Structures are given as structure tokens and as C-alpha cells.
Amino acid sequence: MSVVEPTLDLERELVGAGGVLACVDEVGRGALAGPVSVGLVAIDPWAPGVPEGVRDSKLLSLAARERLEPEVRAWVLAGAVGHASPGEIDELGIVAALRLAGRRAWDACLNALGEASLPRPSMALLDGNLDWLSAPPADLFAAAQPGDEEGLRSVDVPVRTQVKGDRDCLGVGAASILAKVERDRLMEELALQHPAYGWERNKGYGSAAHRAAILGQGPCDAHRRSWKLI
């Protein structure tokens, strides 16, 4: 099967020369344990120095992701990864937890851009067909959105969703690399605290060995208790 080479074509359609675009992807959505993580990069898609070999992190080896992660950070104007914990996923549901993680990444990127006196993104490009990143419609009877108590800024720019964006769009692929590398490192740290589940290998996903360990040991506080674990 041929591998699709991602490009910056769509990113350049969305913002002109000198414009800044936020590219966003998530990892860990389907895992049984650990956080859901959202990578967000602010890019000038016309800028030189694009790292060679950037693509959807799922299509890259561990060694390739580790090599590319610092190259991606050197190329982008700003990059951040936001996380929502297993407890937040259980409390909020996965869509609201994704939005919370995305707001954390967005806020961190805006802070980095501001410190460098760089312009903020005028638009966001999000992998998939569901816009979980934008603030939900205002509801006079709803409670404050998760993250408001942290003072997080909501994503207040238009969001373009793109199916297979992580495969086809180089900027989204860059965001996926940051998210995957950082989440994998978090899962390796959690594996040291909870060695029975093999998270250094399965990264919290539902492998047969992981499910067998849950059956034998029971879940721990890093599992998503609201999910079907066995």
C-alpha cells in the first residue's frame, strides 16, 4: 500500500503568506488508561525549514517520532500539548475532555506566541469530522465550561475540520507527533508506578495483556473507570 505524502496545500489555502494557522490533533482517545492528549502547533505554512518526514504519528516508528519531535518544535512558531486526566474524562465525557485538553494547548500556545511577540492564529485546522475544539453554544442555564476556573482562553477562531487531516496535512501531522511523543512519555512514567499493566508497551490501549491485567489486578486510579475495561 502506497504511503500518502502530506503537504501544506490546505494550510496555505486557509491562510495567506504571513498568516498563522493552528493545526490540531489528538492522541489517546480510545485508550483505557492515561490522559487524552491534544497537540496544537501554530505555524506559518509558507515558512522555510519544514522537517523532512513529518506525517501522521501513527505511521512513524518510535525512533522517527523521537527524531522529528525537536525538529517540529524548531519549525513551528509555537507548539504545546494539553492533557485531560482519566478522572476528567470520567467526569466530563470524552468530547468535553478533548475540548479541555485543547483549551490547555491553545492557551499555552497563545502564551508562547505573546512572549515572542508573534501574531496569534486566525484559524484552526482540526483532524476529523467533529469540531470538539470550539466553545459550545452559549446556554444561560449551563454551568461554566471546564477550564474556566483555570482562566483558560477558549478557541475563538474559525475551526476547519478535515477527515484524514493527520494523514494529508503536514501541519496536523506535526501536531500529532508532539502529542504522541509527550503522551507516550507520560504513559512510560505511569508504567513505573503501575508495572502490572504493561503501559510501557501498550500505552494504555486495550491490548489482550492489558485487559488480562485489569481482570487480575483490578483497575487503578489511572484507568478510565467509566469505560468498559474488560
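Above is the first protein from milestone M3; the second protein from the same milestone is given next.
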Amino acid sequence: MPCSPTTGQNCSQPSPTDKTVSIGKLLRESAERLKQAGCDAPQLDAGLLLMHAWPCSRIDLIIRAHDEPEAAVCQRFEALVARRINREPLAYIIGEKEFWSRPFRVSPDVLIPRPETEHLIEAVIARFPEQHTSYRFCDIGTGSGCIAITLAAEYPQALVVATDISSEALHMAQANARSLDVAARMLWRNGDMLQPLQHEDGPFDLIISNPPYVSAGEMYELEPELGLEPRHALTDEADGLQFLATILHDAPAQLKPGGYIIVETGTCGLPATPAGLVLEEEIHDLAGLLRGAVYKQA
């Protein structure tokens, strides 16, 4: 029988009516605690945390719902649940986040990849449908590397250059590139925005970025989890448009004739389009919210 860390019997707290706890019950009770803490997806979070603590598959959670978990599993799971109750992002707790169906390691040094950013990948594939061409792509502010690495994986003949002002973020991105077997076709540049790019890196067919676009005022309205993500990756400490404007102003000089710039944005909107660029498309999600834009060099 699984042993309890305290009683030597099982991992539940003994009571006159119930001296055991099943995996199913443990998940239900933990999900309720997460719900009370304000987590958006408490059942999903509880399942993922238990899968990480065990480790096990989602099928295991179903077929073993009536089993008693081992004491060591209970201890690890409870520690993870406590962190999530304190609104630590789930991705930081388990150390991984999926993006474009690939796993990316994450830590508090990098912004957590989000599904909204996948709209940028869709826009790239729409403009560059020949995926075995030797393109040159550049990702500004790469963070975890989710955009740059995804492009390197989807375009197996492309060279991808990635910049970030944070050396810690670049180390994380490099680790992700190695684990996803695309590191040989990637270059890394440490510095602010486009400044660290070297002459031989370009010119580029595409410059892409998910820059900090949350305004300083919006930062006070964000959910608690975002307070644990790197602030410099979220906000320009102004109106949200500063980094977007810099990219649109500076990137054209690094493009091939007819090259593209694709950026992510949010409620801040988009800055004025500089001369020499054409705003080809505003990217909206299924709810109609503005998520980004595609520019082409005129």
C-alpha cells in the first residue's frame, strides 16, 4: 500500500470516515482549490501538475482514477499546487510550454509563448509558401526562441538570426534550438532590437517580432501571473507603440527588395506606417481582436 509521508499508511489525512484518497479525488479537490485561487483552468492545471509530479500520461489519470497515489507523488504534487495557488504561471512550474506543436523550455528569464503568437507563423507561411527555399529570416527579441526556432523547423533550408537584449533569454533559446535540432542554421545576437545585427547577417527576406507592446497603464490591469514574467518583455513603459515604431523605422534597411516585416501587437494598436512600407494586412484572431500586422517594403 502506498505510504503516507506522515502516517505511513497512505497519502491522505486520516479521518473517521475516509482514510484514503484516490487519484480522481485528489484531482477534484486540488482543482477546487485552484478555482478558489482564481486560476482560469483549474481542472486542466491540476491534471498537468499531477502528470508532472508523477510523471504519467493523461490516459493514466483516467484509467488509474481509483488508485491511491504514492506518498512521494503526493508531496511533489502538493508543492506544485501550492505554487500555482500563488499564481505562479503553470509553464514556469513545469518548465515547458507548447508552441506550434513543439515543446519549448521556459523559465522566468523569458516570456511564456502564447497561442496568439502562432498567428504570426501563419502569416509567414502564407507569404512564403515554398518552405524548402533558402530564405534569411530575422526574429527581433526572440525570448524563448519560439518564433525563430519554429521558422527554422518549418523552413529546413532557411538561415534564422535571432536577437535579444537578455543574455539569459538567448541561452534559453539556444537550448531550445539544440533540443529541436535546428541550432546549426541559427545565429544569435545579444543586444537591443536590431542594433546587434551584423552586416553579413542580412539582407533578410523577413524580419519578425513579438516586441513589448503592453502600455504602462495596462500593466496594472493584467492577471497576477504576468507579474512574474519579465517586465521588459511585456511593456515599453510608455504607450506600447515605442518598440513597434522602432522596428518599422529601422527594419527596412535590413530587408531585401520586397521583403516583409511581421509584428505582433495588442490593444495599443499600430504606429503610423513609415514611408517605404505598405501595411499589407492587419492580423485579427477569431474574436476579431487585432493581433499583429504584415508590412511589405514598397
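Note on the second protein: Residues 101-297 form a domain with the Rossmann fold fold (CATH 3.40.50.150).
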